[in-house]
Specification:
The complex is a heterodimer. By secondary structure, chain A is α/β, with parallel strands linked by helices. Chain A is built from 7 helices and 13 strands. By secondary structure, chain B is of the alpha/beta class. Classes of the chains: A alpha/beta, B alpha/beta. The structure holds flavin-adenine dinucleotide.
């Protein structure tokens, strides 16, 4: 089975994230980048499948030079190879363009049975790319999966969306997974050493046959008009419980007309 | 005036509150036209009329429930191609986002997710990076496809007599690839739906597994119960109640965090709450920095006393 895991390199959420002033795109230079935590669950799920049988796990990312780190981390965890789609023309691409490029990369890889992704990126967080990919590739799509199994060439999944659903689909499929599905492994020392020898291909838009004019900021189908730092919430009154803490909460709530 | 399509979010015709919010927003922009997909339209009719749907596209078929979102996206796209709306509004929840994503590809249109407001000129407001920034954006290509978070506006009734247009449903085989074999309805708690509630009381690791005081306070206030991931991972409360990056995003009038430290992933789900009250025994807990009112103390005693006092005041 050929499994593609889509990984994204994002600014660390624990740091002070921000935007580039000139074009309102995410600031990826001023903040340390990491593999989006939510993608680690997708990598882990792919590795579980390859641990238990025949599966070739390929980590694919689209992003500037630094995004290679997301591939490296996936390889250290155990993915067999990587593909880095990088092209200056991609800067500022929206979700629609991103899905177009990733779909082209998956098609170029050929004969992919399963595409695994995180439930959202930890920066943009739209959760729409997996559905867009399925739409473009004509694959089945199961999103927000908390449990995944295979039987008789079919995927069977527990989908934790608004309600819990049991879903079946035939391959090929795009499956996005939640943080409920597994406990991602840490790269071992052996994994880190082995990763250095694993093959990583670098593809440009030309390699994918995607028109550079159809992606990037100027071709985006939505535009950010303004970005404003939200004023820090100002701390209100903090009291220490001296036996009347509950009464004080009630008084405050009554004062705010919640009672 | 161009139509604004509103995808009706419902369970067997019981219209969810978010749809009445979307209809209220649609009225600012153009002519609200509801799109009803699924079964049970009879039950939905009155609500859609009461909240100002000038038109309702009715595509009734039990098949919508048999598969994941693809059939919804397919029929919605079909309706949109003839109606030529200037926008399609969808509720920001897992199904809604997946429908919006597919629709954007089908209609070759831009998509914006998680709007907390939409202006009459279709400029959206979003809260990003765990609430650290406010972004204003606009779709520039095709039909504006926008998913809107619950509680974006207060629903305002505006009685109409909608024109109903029946839509014949044919679902392609391509849209039937993911089959739903079982669906577990949300357990009835008698409490409001978490994402829609005006008041949310959440408990974290500090509850030590005892959610009784959290539930009692929620009930005294008529609120919903939330939980941190630490509480969910410990098996103390169902995942469907998790608030945060990988749980639900809530934006209530009042959020009470009890025994929750305030990790960035938790804040991502509640930062836009109007008023935040914190009960935590550690005065250094980061969550206090966002509190409008806070008590440093043991949540078990503080919540119990608060509940008693509220019951007393309610009389
Ligand atoms: C990818 C990823 C996704 C995540 N998604 C989410 C998410 O969606 N939602 C989420 O909540 N977290 C999420 N987390 C986890 C998050 O980082 C924190 O670990 C979690 O929020 C901590 O929960 P907590 O505040 O209940 O526990 P803790 O951080 O352990 O805090 C417990 C608090 O309770 C206080 N306390 C203890 N006893 C008492 C008492 N008797 N009375 C009063 N106070 C008491 C303590 O002082 C402390 O501040 C995510 C993490 C990752 C890596």
């Amino acid at each position: 089975m050929k499994i593609v895991v889509l990984v994204k390199h994002v600014p660390d959420a624990a740091a002070d994230r921000g935007f580039n002033e000139s074009d309102h795109t995410t600031d990826r230079a001023g903040v340390d980048g990491i593999l989006s935590e939510l993608d680690e669950y997708a990598v882990e799920e792919a590795l579980k499948l390859s641990d238990s049988g025949e599966a070739d796990v390929i980590a694919v990312t689209m992003g500037p030079d630094g995004a290679l780190d997301a591939i490296k981390r996936s390889l250290q965890m155990g993915a067999a190879s990587g593909v880095h789609v990088v092209d200056d023309a991609l800067h500022g691409s929206d979700a629609v363009a991103t899905s177009k490029v990733l779909a082209a990369a998956i098609s170029k890889l050929g004969d992919v049975n399963l595409v695994l992704t995180g439930m959202a990126s930890t920066d943009g967080g739209m959760s729409v790319v997996p559905a867009m990919l399925a739409e473009r590739l004509g694959f089945a799509h199961i999103g927000f999966v908390g449990e995944l199994g295979f039987a008789d060439g079919k995927v069977s999944a527990r989908r934790d969306a608004d309600v819990t659903e049991t879903v079946e689909a035939s391959l090929p499929a795009v499956v996005s997974v939640t943080d409920q599905i597994n406990e991602p492994r840490y790269p071992s020392f052996k994994g880190i050493m082995a990763a250095k020898k694993k093959p990583v291909e670098t593809w440009s838009l030309a390699d994918l046959g995607v028109d550079a004019g159809s992606v990037g900021l100027s071709a985006a189908w939505s535009v950010v008009e303004a970005v404003t730092a939200r004023p820090e919430r100002t701390q209100g009154e903090i009291v220490t419980d001296e036996g009347d803490g509950g009464v004080k909460v009630a008084e405050y709530l009554a004062g705010q007309k919640f009672i | 005036m161009a139509e604004i399509l509103v995808l009706v979010d419902h369970v067997d015709g019981a219209v969810r509150k978010t749809t009445t919010e979307l209809l209220t927003i649609a009225r600012r922009i153009g002519e609200p036209a509801a799109v009803f997909l699924g079964s049970g339209y009879e039950a939905a009719r009155d609500t859609l009329a009461r909240f100002g749907a000038v038109k309702v596209y009715v595509a009734e078929s039990p098949e919508f429930d048999d598969y994941l979102v693809a059939p919804h996206a397919e029929v919605l796209a079909q309706i949109a191609s003839t109606a030529q709306p200037s926008a399609v509004l969808v509720t920001s929840n897992p199904d809604g986002k997946e429908i919006a994503g597919r629709l954007a590809v089908k209609l070759e249109s831009g998509v914006i997710t998680d709007a907390v407001d939409v202006d009459s000129d279709l400029t959206t407001t979003q809260s990003v990076f765990a609430g650290g920034y406010t972004v204003n954006a606009r779709v520039t290509q095709g039909t504006a496809i926008i998913t809107v978070k619950p509680n974006a506006v207060t629903p305002e009734p505006a009685e109409t007599t909608p024109v109903e247009e029946k839509v014949a449903v044919t679902i392609s085989d391509a849209a039937k690839r993911a089959k739903v074999v079982a669906r577990t309805a949300r357990a009835a708690t008698g409490r409001p739906e978490l994402t829609e509630a005006a008041i949310v009381v959440s408990g974290g690791r500090g509850t030590g597994g005892e959610f009784g005081p959290v539930e009692a306070l929620a009930d005294a206030l008529g609120g919903a119960v939330g939980a941190s991931r630490a509480a969910v991972d410990s098996g103390w409360y169902p995942h469907s109640h998790q608030v945060g990056q990988t749980g639900k995003t809530v934006s209530p009038q009042l959020y009470i965090a009890a025994g929750i430290s305030g990790a960035i992933q938790h804040r991502a789900g509640m930062q836009t709450s109007k008023t935040i009250v914190v009960v935590n025994k550690d005065a250094e807990a980061p969550i206090f920095s966002m509190a409008d009112f806070g008590v440093v103390g043991d949540l078990h005693t503080v919540l119990r006393q608060a509940t008693e006092e509220i019951e007393k005041r309610k009389g």
